[in-house]
Amino acid sequence: MAQNDDKTLTSGTTNRLAIFCFYDAQGHADDYVRVFLEGLMPSIRRLVVVSNGKIDDESRAMFEGFTPFVIERENEGLDTAAYRQVLLQVGWDQLVKFDEVICCNDTCFGPVHPFEDVFDEMNKRPVDFWGITSYAATVLPSGEEIPEHVQAYWHVYRPSLIAAPCFQRYWETLRLTNDYGENTHRHEITFTKYFQDLGFSWDTFVPRDKYAGMTPYPLLDMPMQVMRDDHCPVLKKRVFETGLVMSLEHTAGQGARQALDYVASSTNYDTSLIWHHELRSQNVTRLRQTLHLEYVLPRHALQDSGQRPRRDLTHVRSAFIFHIFFVDMLDETLRYVRNIPEETDIYITTNEEKIARIDEAILDAGITRRVTFLPVKNRGRDVSALLIAAQDVVLSGRYDVIGFAHDKKSSQNTRLLGRQGTESEGFQERLLENTLGSTEYVRNILSLFEKNACLGLVAPPSPFHAIYFPTTMPTDWGPNFENTVTLLESLDIHVPLDSTIGTTSAIGSCFWFRPEALRPLFERGWEYEDFPDESHMSGDGTISHAIERANGYVAQSQGFYPAWVMTDEWASLEASQLRTLLEEFIAARPQRYVEATPRETLLSQRLGTRLTYVDSKKVAGRLGSLMERIMSALPGRMAESMKHAAGNANVRGRWAMHRLLDNFQRMTRH
Q1: How many CB atoms are closer than 10 A to CB 352?
Q2: What's residue 542's pLDDT?
Q3: InterPro entries annotated for this entry (predicted)?
């Protein structure tokens, strides 16, 4: 035994038992768990792994590489019950033979700093139990008082506490629950004060009072500072999983991005461990929001990759594929082709009969470099051109990064809706400027891929101006969620999808990507007959629209993240427009709905006012029957008004069901 009379421990002791609790919905332990245990093992003598649920064979083999004591149990009582089971099975008489018993779990990445440093410091502290961090005493908005307590992801008990009958009775009589909130109240929140009141002493590695007045939860709200200034060895997964709106409740939303950047730049911890776990377990759009994966790159200056001389990007093997259909737009198209760097190979997909004219226009424009033409059939437009005609280029293995763009003329669609051509022209400019804005900008994109090994795809954000607003806000799915799910399942891709939030995919099909990130999409073996003929391409909901929305999720499935990218000039426009729209939307709300924080304001909104996309083909029958019944019960004037509202709803693209019902409720009140 290394515990001294004053409760400190002899320096260098490793006589510890660690109980590591694990849970994963798919039963798979990602590599970050292995690295966590590798960092812990030098400081302990025995490890028990207890999984709340079944684990796959690969994970079991990994755990058994550390210990023969691997327990699988039903997820009853959550982590608290798992710890309790092991404590009682080992027995108090055996537990007191260890200098310390650690109860820890898989909710942290680490160690970003050595665990040995933590143990060396805490060995000097004369305490009965300790942790890495504490949650400060606070009063919740509900009025509930939360006492200061050691956070339960890392509890360490010494023999002076383990041998106490009150400690043993605590665990033997602890009531278990599957409710996370109730479990937290029964154990984590109350444990520290309960034993402190009984005369036991405790402390934490991160100073308990340092962040008083700033936040009760520095590990969540100030993760970078806790790691940088206090050498905290762990980074909570929750930093990346809380969500941006929740983060804005108490911070400026910068914590997750700062924490990831700090780990990448100032520690030896491999951030790919974080990326791979979060990409497997999270919706990628939520991850983009939390980590602010919107890259703003200079249009007229080269940004240093941090690895090689600024202009030497020849080692990044790159190509650009441009699909050309409208020969009357060649002057505009070739203006962007000129921006492709000399070191980037150029491919043009087009119809066979247009190749000679385009080749002549290229020479007339003074472009003398080699251009390779890839003939296409006029079916499936730009999407089939990329997936079929350019398949061999993408899968050749010759390129690290590939870009794709196409010409676009959608003014005919806006005319049919009584809109101006400048609306679709703005979309086209947005796509091409943020894909091929300048030669320097393209090189900055290549540098971005070089610097970020887990980056799989970048594309301009979806448009939200004019007629595009109701098709991309609040989501850009339209009638394409189910067909996108079907497509992904056909590729054996299963990632978290959510129809209530938008995609992080290349809407508009202009983007840069790693071939490895989209390999399943290109290896599917597409044929032109998989795409509708030209007479059926004007509507939404086709396989092309599903592919357009799937690419970000395909990248996610391969362990890469998708992101937005913009030139600094367009980002300036975007920031100003979004700020103005936010101000106008908030100003349009009744004052009683504007609360103290963004989250509280959102929660105060009526559920019925959220715009929801409705596929009219699927609900037409039920809705029509419902409307007939409603209007048959209304006076003539009100029935005509409802018919007019229904007609307007259809023109707006089937987005207004909630507003239609609101109109009905408003009329029936008068």
Answers
A1: 11
A2: 92
A3: RgpF
What separation in angstroms does the CA of 482 have from each of 478, 508, 593?
10, 19, 34
Rg (CA), the chain: 29
Q: Which residue has the tokens 């507003």?
A: 659
Give the list of residues 6+ apart from residue 356 with CB closer than 8 angstroms, or none. none
Residue type, 389: A
Cα–Cα distance between 111 and 124 in angstroms, integer? 21
Q: Could you give the CA distance from residue 269 to residue 271 in angstroms, rounded to a whole number? A: 6
Q: Is the pLDDT of residue 20 over 90?
A: yes
Distance in Å from the first CA to the final CA of the chain:
81
Query: Which residue type occupies 274?
Result: I
**pLDDT at 649 > cutoff 60:** no
Residues 6 or more apart whose CB falls under 8 angstroms from that of 534 comprise: 378, 379
Whole-Å CA distances, 461 to 147, 270, 642, 655: 44, 29, 36, 21
With residues binned 3-state (H G I as helix, E B as strand, rest as coil), the percentages for the chain, rounded to 5, are 50, 15, 40
Q: Element (H or E) spanning 154, and its range?
A: strand 154-157
Is 492 exposed, middle or buried (CB count within 10 Å of its CB: 0-12, 13-18, 19+)? exposed
DSSP, collapsed to helix, strand or coil, labels residue 253 as coil
Identical fold at 16-219+228-236 and 294-306+314-566?
yes
Which segments of 238-370 are extended strands (E)?
294-297, 318-323, 344-351
**CATH class as words, domain 294-306+314-566:** alpha beta
Q: 405: helix, coil or strand? A: strand
Q: Which two tokens stand for residue 255?
A: 């914590």
Residue 313, SS3 per DSSP: coil
Confidence of residue 562 (pLDDT cuts 50, 70, 90): very high
Per-residue tokens: 578: 């979004």
| pLDDT the model gives residue 11 | 86
Q: Of 373 and 639, which is predicted with more confidence? A: 373
Spans of all domains in the chain: 16-219+228-236, 294-306+314-566, 616-669
Average per-residue pLDDT in the chain?
89
The residue among 619, 465, 608, 613 whose CA lies nearest residue 549 is: 613
CB 69 within 8 A of CB 47: yes
Question: In what helix (H) or strand (E) does residue 658 lie, and over which residues does it extend?
Answer: helix 657-669
SS3 of 82-139: the string is HHHHHHHHHCHHHHCCCCEEEEEECCEECCCCCHHHHHHHHCCCCCCEEECCEECCEE
16-219+228-236: CATH number: 3.90.550
Question: 21, 206, 28, 160: which is closest to 104 by C-alpha?
Answer: 21
| Residue 185, Cβ density class (10 Å: 0-12 exposed, 13-18 middle, ≥19 buried) | middle
- Residues 255 and 225: their CA atoms lie apart, in Å, by 9
Phi, psi at residue 96, to the nearest 5°?
-70, -10
**Cis before residue 496, ω within 30 degrees of 0?**
no
Name the helix (H) or strand (E) containing 371: strand 371-376
Q: Are 458 and 562 in contact (CB under 8 A)?
A: yes
Write the CA distances from 362 to 319, 330, 438, 439, integer angstroms: 18, 9, 18, 17
Model confidence pLDDT, tens digit, residues 80-105:
999 999 999 999 999 999 999 999 99
pTM: 0.87
Pairing of strands 138-139, 145-146: antiparallel
Residue 11 makes CB contacts below 8 A (sequence gap 6+) with 120, 123
